[in-house]
Specification:
The protein is of the alpha/beta class. It contains 8 helices and 18 strands. The protein has 3 domains: 92 residues, Translation factors (Elongation Factor Tu (Ef-tu), domain 3), CATH 2.40.30; 118 residues, Nucleotide-binding domain of ferredoxin-NADP reductase (FNR) module (Rossmann fold); 86 residues, Ubiquitin-like (UB roll) (Roll), CATH 3.10.20.30. Its cofactor is FAD.
């Protein structure tokens, strides 16, 4: 195995073990060499970016750690997805002794640095959205006295990832963990009333939501309607937000050019309607930083110093950062005739 770390931070990690979680999901336990172990320390809820080559194409995908920092291993869990080139390829080909090129952990879907044990943690997971939630729940139970409530939705019992592990947690922490499984096959899709009922009476709580887009939308809307402060709502999206057909800008004039400062160089690129700032940088031949491409991690953030843009989705930047001109370039569409963006 090569020990060379790429200029973009990817290191080759050996697959130490492959665990078949369900018929369509596997966990990959990765062996981190001692010399770069410091680069792969992480907080519960974070993810790894994996770079692979499939049929001659370089592809990057983000996978949350399903292990917790208290473990002595680094593990990601990957579920098959209709049309998911990389997830299906990993399920089909990943084998013990194989190698994956992996960037260091990232992500802001994490537990607050300081939280009162009186504050509950409420988590909503749908399908493979259990992966970061599992890490968060295990960490909160092991390292605090917080009460934890987990609502886990799946198509049916056979789709439940970590079924045995969750049952063991519920038994071990029966005084602090409430686990509710929801099966679409029995009850239909998750409704706003089911969400409101589950969160009722939890008092001051941090709510974490991860899963398919329709599930997340239902949960998010129900939590906000219940009065949950936005600062207490944490979202992790697995799917890339698509630019609606025909969307260009909001200002009534077409964007003509985008000026990009990156790594000490300045490039002026013609703008193609509907492209994000990240896509524009790529078309200009720049190796702009990116990872999740869902607006969740903050890897692609840059600052607009002239002109304006709007973000399709933002689960990474706080209000102060946005006011200072920071944007997530993977989610940003120009809204002025000229835009100048700086990667710092």
């Amino acid at each position: 195995m090569s020990d060379v770390i790429s200029a973009e931070g990817f290191a080759p990690l050996r697959i130490k073990r492959v665990v078949q979680e369900t018929s369509d999901a596997v966990s990959l336990v990765l062996d981190v060499p001692e010399h770069c172990s410091h680069r792969y320390r992480y907080r519960a809820g974070q993810f790894l970016t994996v770079r692979v080559h499939v049929e001659g194409r370089e592809l990057r995908r983000c996978y949350s750690m399903s292990s917790a920092p208290l473990d002595d291993e680094l593990r990601i869990t990957v579920k098959r997805d209709r049309g998911g080139i990389v997830s299906n390829w990993l399920n089909d080909t990943a084998a013990e002794g194989g190698e994956l090129h992996v960037a260091p952990p990232e992500g802001r879907f994490v537990l607050p640095e300081a939280t009162a044990d009186s504050d509950a943690l409420v988590a909503f997971a749908g399908g493979s959205g259990i992966t970061p939630i599992m890490s968060l729940v295990r960490t909160a139970l092991a390292e605090s006295a917080r009460s934890v409530r987990l609502f886990y939705a799946n198509r049916g019992p056979d789709s439940v990832i970590f079924s045995d592990a969750l049952a063991r947690l519920a038994e071990r922490y029966d005084d602090r963990l409430v686990l509710q499984h929801h099966y679409d096959s029995d009850s239909g899709v998750v409704t706003a009333s089911a969400v409101a009922s589950f969160v009722a009476g939890t008092g001051t709580a941090d709510c974490y939501v991860c899963g398919p887009a329709p599930f997340m939308e239902t949960v998010e809307n129900a939590l906000v309607s219940s009065g949950l402060p936005r600062a207490r709502l944490h979202l992790e999206r697995f799917t890339v937000a698509q630019v609606p057909p025909g969307v260009t800008d909001d200002c009534g004039e077409a964007t003509e050019e985008v000026v990009i400062d990156l790594d000490g160089s300045r490039v002026t690129a013609a703008y193609r309607a509907g492209n994000t700032l990240l896509q524009t940088a790529r078309l200009a031949g720049l190796k702009a930083p990116y990872s999740c491409e869902t607006g969740s991690c903050g890897t692609c953030m840059a600052r607009i110093v002239d002109g304006s843009a709007r973000m399709l989705n933002n689960d990474a930047l706080d209000d102060d950062e946005v006011e200072e001109g920071w944007v997530l370039t993977c989610q940003s569409l120009p809204t002025s005739r000229r835009v100048h963006v700086v990667y710092e």
